[in-house]
Specification:
disordered N terminus; mainly alpha; 324 residues; 72% helix; globular
Length: 324
C-alpha cells in the first residue's frame, strides 16, 4: 500500500506562543530597558562631575584586573572538571578549556537557558551523559550563587548601607546561616535533585565524596576573591590609589553584584543589574570616578569572556584536526 505524499510533507502549523509567555517576554524587555536607562542616567550624572584633565588610566593595575578575571574562569574550570570526574569522567585539561570557556557566552542571550544548552552540547562531544551534564551545571551554578550570597551579605554591615537601611543587617544573619546550611552535602544534594525533577531529569544518585565536594566549594568562594581583586585593580587603575585595606569590601561588591545579576532572568549576562549595584556601592568609595570604573569593569568582563571562548574554540578545532 502506498502512502500519500501529503501525509509525509504536511506539517501541522506551529502553535502560537501562549499569551502569558508573550506578556512575560514583553515585561522582561521593558524591565531591561528601564534598568539600562536608569544606569545610563546615573553614569551620565557622575560623568558630568569628573575633571578629565586629572584622570589617567594606569596600565599595570588594569592588566592585573584582566589576569584576575582569567583566574575567575580558571577556578571555575577546576571545579567543573572535579565534578565531571566525580559523576562520569574528567576530560583532559586542554579539552576542559573548551568545555568551560565556550558555553558561558550563552549567558549573554536573554533567558539564561542558552548557556546551559551550550554546556550540554559541548559535554556531549566528550561522551558525558546528558543527565550528568545538566546536574553538574546546576551544581556549579548553585554553589556559585550560594557562595556569592554568603560573600556579599556582609555588605549589609557597611556604614553607608547601615545609614540608608538601618535594619538591613538583620538580613545578613539568615542569609549566611542559610547559605552555610545549604552547602552541607546532603542538603545541597536534595536541593539540586528538586531542581532536576523540575527539569524532568533524573536525580543525582549521590553527592561526590567529601574530598571531591570540598574542591568545588573552595573554588566557588575563590572565584569571588579573584573577582574582588579584579575590581580593586580597576579602581586603582582609574584613581591611582591602592585599596588593599578595602579588598574585603571589593570582594563583597563583586560577589553580590554578579550573583544578583545572574539571578535577574531579564538581564543577559547580568548586564545592567550588575552595574547598578556597583554604581550604588562604589560611589561612596571613589566618588564620580565610578562613572569610569563601572563601564571599564563591564567591558573587561566581556573582553575576557570573548577571548577565552575564542581560545577554547581554537583548541577544540585543533583537537578535531587529524594528525598527519
Amino acid at each position: 500500500m502506498t502512502q500519500d505524499i501529503t501525509d509525509i510533507t504536511h506539517f501541522p502549523p506551529t502553535a502560537p506562543k501562549p499569551r502569558r509567555k508573550r506578556l512575560f517576554g514583553i515585561a522582561k524587555a521593558v524591565l531591561l530597558v528601564l534598568v539600562f536607562a536608569l544606569v545610563g542616567y546615573a553614569v551620565y550624572r557622575q560623568w558630568k562631575l569628573i575633571d578629565f584633565s586629572t584622570v589617567t588610566i594606569r596600565p599595570i593595575p588594569l592588566l592585573l584586573s584582566f589576569v584576575a578575571l582569567v583566574a575567575v574562569s580558571t577556578v571555575q574550570m577546576i571545579s567543573y572538571r572535579t565534578l565531571l570526574g566525580a559523576y562520569a569522567h574528567a576530560p583532559r585539561w586542554l579539552d576542559m578549556l573548551a568545555v568551560a570557556w565556550v558555553p558561558p557566552l550563552g549567558k549573554y542571550v536573554p533567558g539564561k537557558v542558552a548557556a546551559l544548552l551550550a554546556a550540554m552540547s559541548m559535554l556531549r562531544r566528550f561522551a558525558i551523559p546528558m543527565g550528568v551534564a545538566v546536574a553538574v551545571v546546576l551544581v556549579l551554578d548553585g554553589l556559585a550563587v550560594i557562595a556569592g550570597l554568603i560573600t556579599g551579605a556582609p555588605l549589609l554591615f557597611w556604614e553607608p548601607v547601615r545609614r540608608a537601611a538601618p535594619w538591613a543587617w538583620v538580613v545578613c544573619i539568615p542569609v549566611v546561616v542559610g547559605g552555610i546550611v545549604a552547602l552541607y552535602p546532603a542538603i545541597f544534594g536534595r536541593l539540586i535533585n528538586v531542581a532536576l525533577r523540575k527539569l524532568k531529569k533524573e536525580p543525582l544518585p549521590r553527592m561526590p565524596p567529601v574530598s571531591e565536594y570540598l574542591i568545588p566549594v573552595a573554588c566557588a568562594f575563590a572565584q569571588w576573591v579573584f573577582a574582588g581583586l579584579s575590581l580593586m585593580w580597576i579602581v586603582q587603575a582609574v584613581t591611582g590609589d591602592p585599596h588593599y585595606a578595602q579588598l574585603p569590601l571589593f570582594i563583597s561588591f563583586a560577589a553580590l553584584s554578579q550573583t544578583i545579576g545572574y539571578l535577574a532572568l531579564f538581564a543577559p549576562g547580568g548586564i545592567g543589574v550588575r552595574e547598578a549595584i556597583l554604581l550604588a556601592g562604589l560611589q561612596p568609595v571613589v566618588g564620580p570616578l565610578v562613572a569610569i570604573i563601572v563601564p571599564i569593569r563591564a567591558i573587561a568582563q566581556i573582553a575576557v569572556d570573548l577571548t577565552l571562548a575564542l581560545l577554547g574554540l581554537l583548541l577544540l578545532r585543533r583537537r578535531r584536526r587529524p594528525s598527519i
